[in-house]
Design brief:
about 90 residues; mainly alpha; 2 domains; 3 helices; about 85% helix
């Protein structure tokens, strides 16, 4: 329930509707169905991955420590990359 996503869709959606290609309502329904299917696939995949990760992390404290180290390293790498890109632009 992200209102920003709906506002974004209202701004972008009309650009893909072409009156010269036929019924506007049919095009809108088709584009809406494609958007809904993509969101179900992406958010469904994230939910399934998160549930599997939860099972793995509950399995042992060793897995929790390994994941914490991996995630911390990823955050440090992201910070270094952001700093590097900021210096390149400046």
């Amino acid at each position: 329930m992200n209102p920003k996503a709906y506002i974004f869709m209202l701004a972008v959606f009309p650009q893909f509707i072409r009156p010269q290609l036929g019924n506007i309502a049919a095009q809108s329904v088709a584009l809406g169905a494609i958007t809904a299917a993509a969101q179900i696939a992406v958010y469904g995949g994230v939910a399934l991955a998160a549930s599997q990760l939860r099972v793995w992390l509950r399995g042992s404290s060793k897995s929790q420590t390994a994941f914490s180290h991996w995630l911390g390293g990823l955050l440090v790498l992201t910070a270094v990359w952001t700093l590097w890109m900021g210096w390149r632009v400046a």
